[in-house]
Structures are given as structure tokens and as C-alpha cells.
């Protein structure tokens, strides 16, 4: 074998090893979503989605599509190209306490792998003082957020606190107001105290909804429509908390863009 042939074979070998090494560095991670109905994937509720629920759509239900469109993503704090899988565990009517008590958090905790992410968005049900089966005091809310954060880190995961997406009220002089009060502030405080990544979805959604205008978001983003349009809602719907597909996509886009920037602040 000539020296030229040997050099050629060595060169090919090095190239192949380099490609294999690059592939080995590519990663696949999960982003777990934990929270309430505004984040939930209704198609995973185990019933006939079109007949019983559509068009209600949680923003987590459409979140995967943003990562699929982007292809492999450089996640915050990483230099490695990563494929992302969204695992949406959010469920309607859950507060931080009930999500924990029902074992939903345990099922997430047991499956977190090093490098995975956990996005937590609660507050809508924690604040429901009239629904004692859901209600959580401010201090309780903060304690459960701390628990989710610390146990995510125990497993080598990356927690992200999201302030709760705003409802379509109250409006004042064409400007949507924050409806989450102390629970909004509590989420900010826990994120700061624990030095956890924060996505201020309350303010991002207020800005988005205000920019579109009350009339537009009421009819196109939230579950407000007349009778006879959808099989699941023969009498129509008046709901300023939950989203139609367009609203869910708008909120998911806010979270996606904020997530890509959180390590650059």
C-alpha cells in the first residue's frame, strides 16, 4: 500500500470519527410542562377531543410545533444542538397543591433526566378562594413552587418559573390589567429568591392582548363564540380564561421566544 493510500484512508477515518463524534454530541431533551388548563393538551385527555372539547386549546398543546419548525435548537446554557420533545403534564383545574397531592408531580420527578427542563405555570386555581378543593394560600403556593424547583435540580434538570398567563379581564381604557394580584408577585419572588429562570408570561400576554385589542382577542383568542359553530359547544361559549387555537398559538409563541432569550439576559 502506498503512502498516498495510507494518508487517504487515515483522512477518511478521521472524517468518519469526526462525524460520529458530532452526532454523539447531539442531544435530545424533554421539556416538561406542569400547570393548569391554560397550558394543558386537551387532545391527551383520553376522550373524543373534537366532539367534547374542541376548539379549546392549551398553549402547551401547540408548543411542540415551534421547536419542530426551528429544528435542532441551542438551549439556554448549552452549546450543543438539541432536539426537543415537549411532555405536557398540565391538567385543568390544578393548583400547585393538587398537582402535587394527586401524584402528578411525582410522575414528572421520577422521569426527569439530567439536562431536561421543567416549565411551571400555576396561579389560576391557587387563587380560587371560592373553590376550597383547589385553593392554596400565597405562602403555600410559594412553597410548592420551591419544591418543584429544588426537586427538578436534584435530578439535574432546569426549572423555569412562568407567571400565569393573563385572563381577558379586566380592561381599562383599552389596556388589559393584571388579574393575578399577589400570585403574580409571589411567582416573581420565588424565581428571584431561588435564582431560577423566569418567563414573565403575565406581562408578555398583557402586552400581546392589549396590542391586538379587546374586541379581537375576545373573539379570536378566547373561547367566545355563538351557538352552532362547534359540536362540543352547541349553545356557544363565553369564556375569557381558555383559548381557541389562535390564542393558544399566540401564547406559545410568546413562551418560545422568551425561552430562547432567558440565558442571554
UniProtKB/TrEMBL annotation:
CDD domains: Rhamnogalacturan_acetylesterase_like. The chain crosses the membrane at residues 6-22. Keywords: Hydrolase, Membrane, Transmembrane, Transmembrane helix. Pfam families: Lipase_GDSL_2. Residues 33-248 form the SGNH hydrolase-type esterase domain. Belongs to the 'GDSL' lipolytic enzyme family. This is Rhamnogalacturonan acetylesterase.
Amino acid at each position: 500500500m502506498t503512502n498516498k493510500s495510507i494518508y487517504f484512508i487515515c483522512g477518511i477515518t478521521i472524517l468518519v470519527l469526526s462525524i460520529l463524534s458530532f452526532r454523539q454530541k447531539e442531544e435530545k431533551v424533554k421539556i416538561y410542562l406542569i400547570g393548569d388548563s391554560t397550558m394543558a393538551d386537551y387532545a391527551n385527555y383520553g376522550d373524543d377531543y373534537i366532539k367534547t372539547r374542541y376548539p379549546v386549546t392549551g398553549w402547551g398543546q401547540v408548543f411542540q410545533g415551534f421547536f419542530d419548525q426551528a429544528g435542532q435548537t441551542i438551549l439556554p446554557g448549552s452549546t450543543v444542538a438539541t432536539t426537543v420533545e415537549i411532555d405536557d403534564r398540565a391538567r385543568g383545574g390544578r393548583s400547585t397543591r393538587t398537582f402535587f397531592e394527586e401524584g402528578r408531580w411525582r410522575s414528572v420527578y421520577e422521569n426527569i433526566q439530567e439536562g431536561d427542563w421543567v416549565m411551571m405555570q400555576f396561579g389560576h386555581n391557587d387563587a380560587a378562594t371560592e373553590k376550597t378543593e383547589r385553593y392554596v394560600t400565597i405562602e403555600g403556593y410559594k412553597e410548592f413552587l420551591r419544591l418543584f424547583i429544588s426537586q427538578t435540580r436534584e435530578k439535574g434538570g432546569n426549572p423555569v418559573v412562568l407567571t400565569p398567563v393573563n385572563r381577558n379581564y379586566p380592561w381599562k381604557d383599552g389596556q388589559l390589567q393584571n388579574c393575578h394580584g399577589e400570585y403574580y408577585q409571589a411567582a416573581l419572588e420565588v424565581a428571584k429568591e431561588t435564582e431560577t429562570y423566569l418567563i414573565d408570561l403575565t406581562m408578555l400576554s398583557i402586552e400581546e392582548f392589549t396590542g391586538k385589542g379587546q374586541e379581537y382577542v375576545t373573539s379570536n383568542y378566547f373561547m367566545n363564540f355563538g351557538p352552532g359553530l362547534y359540536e362540543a359547544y352547541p349553545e356557544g361559549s363565553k369564556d375569557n380564561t381558555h383559548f381557541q387555537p389562535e390564542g393558544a398559538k399566540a401564547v406559545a409563541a410568546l413562551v418560545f421566544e422568551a425561552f430562547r432569550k432567558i440565558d442571554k439576559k
